[in-house]
């Protein structure tokens, strides 16, 4: 299943925090985190970051159509330190999303294993036999009969996790071209934003919390 044509935004690079080990930036929606497999997919966040900070190293990714906080390492030692934090689920990520319909109850957890839907890749699906563990906490911030604004706190980092978990509840993320294409005319971007990222600084282990204001 093809995504829409790649037309990355020309937003200037937005630096949220930088020091001798870490670089936090705000990724705009519609921009790949890393280059794709073809030349037309070369423009991406890490390429833009490395044009200004040549030493920047990749630590994690956000989906193309998700906006929000991303962290890059400035040294190989910081990259290893952060990589372990992500691997051991020691980082804390908070997202904001707008989903279809009134999500009830006001809070809960989705515990559904996920795997790639091979005939329809890159789509993912709930797979109780072969899927990998995936956990998402949610809390409704406000709701109407047509949509809900929710805070999402993933405990794991599976591909498309938040998108498939919300879909599994019957409340897909608005503007999601893959999982809720019928909402894309009314919502020209996917309504999913990585609002806050908390982790330990590689130099001394002090807690760092960086926020990118939600654009919707």
Explain this structure to me?
This protein is of the alpha+beta class. It contains 3 helices and 11 strands, in the order ββαβαββββββαββ. The chain has helices spanning 45-52, 76-87, 161-168; strands spanning 14-18, 22-27, 67-73, 92-100, 107-111, 114-116, 124-126, 135-143, 147-154, 192-200, 207-211. The chain is globular, with a radius of gyration of 17 Å. The two termini are 27 Å apart.
The gist of it:
13% of the residues lie in helices and 32% in strands. The chain is built from 3 helices and 11 strands.
Report the order of strands and helices.
EEHEHEEEEEEHEE
Using the alpha-carbon principal axes, give the shape: globular
What percentage of the residues does DSSP assign to strands (E)?
A: 25-35%
CA radius of gyration? 17 Å
Q: Between the first and last Cα atoms, what is the distance in angstroms? A: 27 Å
Instruction: Output the structural class.
Output: alpha+beta
The main pleated sheet reads as:
9 strands, mixed
């Amino acid at each position: 299943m093809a995504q829409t044509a790649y037309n990355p935004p020309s937003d200037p690079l937005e630096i949220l925090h930088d020091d001798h080990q870490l670089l936090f930036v705000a990724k705009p929606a519609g921009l790949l985190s890393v280059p794709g497999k073809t030349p037309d997919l070369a423009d991406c966040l890490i390429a833009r970051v490395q044009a200004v900070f040549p030493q920047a190293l990749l630590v994690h990714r956000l989906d193309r159509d998700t906006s929000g906080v991303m962290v890059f390492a400035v040294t190989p030692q910081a990259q290893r330190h952060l990589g372990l934090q992500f691997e051991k689920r020691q980082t804390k990520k908070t997202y904001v999303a707008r989903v279809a319909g009134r999500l009830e109850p006001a809070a809960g957890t989705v515990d559904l294993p996920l795997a790639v839907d091979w005939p329809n890749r890159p789509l993912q699906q709930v797979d109780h036999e072969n899927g990998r563990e995936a956990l998402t906490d949610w809390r409704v911030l406000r709701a109407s009969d047509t949509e809900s604004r929710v805070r999402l706190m993933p405990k794991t980092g599976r591909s498309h996790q938040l998108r498939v978990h919300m879909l599994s509840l019957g409340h897909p993320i608005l503007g999601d071209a893959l999982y809720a294409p019928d909402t894309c005319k009314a919502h020209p971007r996917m309504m999913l934003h990585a609002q806050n990222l908390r982790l330990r600084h590689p130099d001394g282990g002090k807690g760092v919390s960086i926020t990118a204001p939600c654009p919707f």
